[in-house]
Queue: 2 jobs
Job 1
Amino acid sequence: MRFRSLSTSLVVVSAMTAGCAMAADVKLIFGHVGKPGSLFEASVNAYDTRCRD
């Protein structure tokens, strides 16, 4: 009986913790992408000029 109560409490606490973690905002930062002179910037600029034509 005690094991069942302990495991139920553990499940409830885990669910509450997971719910709070899932509700948090996530911000992804990719600082190295698109730096001046990078290959990514060159390909984006080439794509942009082709799309405008």
Job 2
Amino acid sequence: MNIQNHLPTYAENHARLPKSYGQGFCPWVPIILSSSVTEDGNALRVSTVVPVYGTKVDMLRRVSPDEECRSDMGFDRGAPHSLYIHIPFCISKCTYCDFNSTVIKSQLVGEYLKAIENEFQLINKKYSFKTVYIGGGTPSVLDETQLSRLLNIISKYVDVFNLKEYTIEANPGTLNNEKIHILKNSHVNRVSIGIQSFNDKYLKFLGRIHTAKETKDIFLNLREKGFGNINIDLIYGYPGQTLNEWKMDLRICSRLNPEHVSAYCISYEQGTPLANLIDSGISKKLSEEEELKMYENTKDFLINNGYIHYEISNFARQGKECQHNIVYWENREYIGIGTGAFSYVNGERYCNIKDVKEYISNVKSKNSLICFSEKLSQKKRASEILIMALRMTSGISKHEFLDRSGFDLAELFGKQLSNLAQAGLITFDDERIKLTRKGLSVADSVMMEFV
């Protein structure tokens, strides 16, 4: 799952929180990042920075004198080490999708790839990246020539031979043997397949362009070409789905034996065809009790089949956890390239223009590519570190929190920690804080305690 697609502002996330089951059930848990509100929570306080084209990274690294005097604990020396590249094109929009994507047009792709290369020039080898993630959209929708061009651009500016992890997202309906060969020859070492379901009835309902058979064939083709690190994306909880049907999806997935599984409960984003079906009464949401049963079954099944449950919605074989996404969950720094891509540099988070044509136009005219920017206060950043860390089942240690935020965990959040521990939602001992099994199922409400 492309985590960059879940990096909206605090206000957007706060509005998205679902109706709660008990303390509040939402197994994918909106990522709360931009806590730019006043202390009483009444007003947004966003300070937008619009540097000139060509000096984006340098200008965003400037800090005020009072910030220079602050502790810089938690900032990665020499970071960021992770790079995200957004390819916004798809053959068609899925019924549930509100991601930053657009239907593909060949001429636009060529202009977009040129724009991406120009943006690469802004950070020309300033950073030593350890992970690269190509997300979308559907990166595999590019034809063979376009895909080769994209990967050649990346290789020109990134030392791909020394990457620990090099991921591309793919749709089974747009990946073929020639493209797989191109990926392998370009040193991509991890493929994330957006399967979503192994049931043709639900694939059609979700607006997916592939079939269950195509999914299995592509997976096996990747294996035959030597890919030993494959993620399968699955979605559950959509209208009409039964627990037994979801169990069947998990069994089929297990038989394919991917190294990594991402399993997310479907969300109903305003303005999407799926949300419109719900609003009009044509389709009906599953109850939160049914969604919870599916989530609990997911955890039990995958853990019993040898997967490590390392993040709320993510499971991996030993050593195959997604290193790029862990950067987000550990609230560390990263660079994003392309439309709508977020970057996080020296405590400043900023987002590129989302509209493809406007992005291309601004690159050509050398205008700013940034549509949003904010600098978090030290306390807001500490809050964010804890919220993101709680997505990981390992949680965070007191020492690590102090080292990264400059704050003592108990002093900053002692009351909330005590209340949550008494409710059985977290464990909080002398060493670590982490969610309990009960807490994982109501994680959205737990995390809101620290906003």
